[in-house]
């Protein structure tokens, strides 16, 4: 019999969290997108998540409830709320944006209370010419071998599915499973 699991999808602003969930969700995504008021951030995209994105996907006999966090720092409190009772998490970063590694370090420190939960670091936009290789991201985040760093293209269902399968394998191997 399958499990019902709560998965947090988090990462810096404009990492591709909403796209990641939208690409894989079996249901229409519940999104809280609003027009960006910050002129600097608006140069990257027009809308931003202000509360959460919610999607659901069945993988095998398991059902995953995907909770996407806002990326803007002013909504950091939502990450704490959405992180409650999660079975695992995805830390997504834009591998073409050099500042995302530093921001991911801050996010990892903020998720320290979840360090015993299964998780993966996901290097999005690996199809782009200037994408940083996952080995370099692992090195820059000083993760060693203890955390999987996976390549991803958040617009491709097969790529997102592979990330979630890797996370599911970790959840299944977890002592809490």
Describe this structure in words.
The protein is an alpha/beta fold. The chain has a single domain (4-173), classed as Rossmann fold. The chain has six helices and seven strands; from the N terminus they run E-H-E-H-E-E-H-E-H-E-H-E-H. The chain has helices spanning 17-24, 39-42, 76-82, 99-110, 134-141, 157-173; strands at residues 4-10, 30-35, 47-59, 62-68, 88-94, 119-124, 148-151. A seven-stranded mixed sheet has the order 2-3-4-1-5-6-7, with helices on both faces. Helix 1 (17-24) packs across helix 6. The two termini are 13 Å apart.
What string, H for helix and E for strand, traces the elements in order? EHEHEEHEHEHEH
Major beta-sheet overview: 7 strands, mixed
Number of strands: 7
Per CATH, the architecture is 3-Layer(aba) Sandwich
Give, in spatial order, the strands making up the sheet with the most strands. Answer: 2-3-4-1-5-6-7
Alpha-carbon distance between the two ends: 13 Å
Helix content: 25-40%
What is the overall number of helices?
A: 6
Poorly predicted runs are 39-43
What is the residue-mean pLDDT, rounded to a whole number? 85
CATH 4th-level superfamily: P-loop containing nucleotide triphosphate hydrolases
What is the gyration radius calculated from CA atoms?
Answer: 15 Å
Task: Give the class from helix and strand content and strand pairing.
Answer: alpha/beta
Number of domains: 1
Stated plainly, the CATH topology is called Rossmann fold
């Amino acid at each position: 019999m399958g499990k019902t699991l709560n998965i947090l999808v988090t990462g810096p602003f404009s990492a591709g969290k909403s796209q990641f969930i939208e690409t894989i969700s079996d249901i229409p995504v519940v999104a809280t997108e609003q027009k960006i008021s910050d002129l600097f951030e608006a140069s990257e995209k027009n809308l931003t998540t202000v509360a959460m994105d919610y999607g659901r996907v069945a993988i095998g006999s398991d059902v995953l409830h995907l909770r996407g966090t806002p990326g803007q720092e002013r909504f950091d409190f939502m990450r704490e709320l959405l992180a409650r009772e999660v079975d695992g998490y995805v830390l997504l970063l834009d591998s073409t944006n050099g500042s995302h590694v530093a921001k991911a370090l801050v996010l990892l420190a903020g998720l320290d209370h979840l360090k015993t939960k299964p998780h993966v670091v996901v290097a999005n936009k690996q199809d782009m010419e200037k994408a940083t290789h996952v080995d370099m991201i692992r090195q820059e985040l000083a993760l060693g071998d203890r955390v999987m760093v996976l390549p991803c293209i958040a617009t491709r269902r097969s790529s997102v599915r592979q990330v979630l399968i890797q996370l599911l394998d970790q959840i299944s191997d977890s002592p809490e499973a």
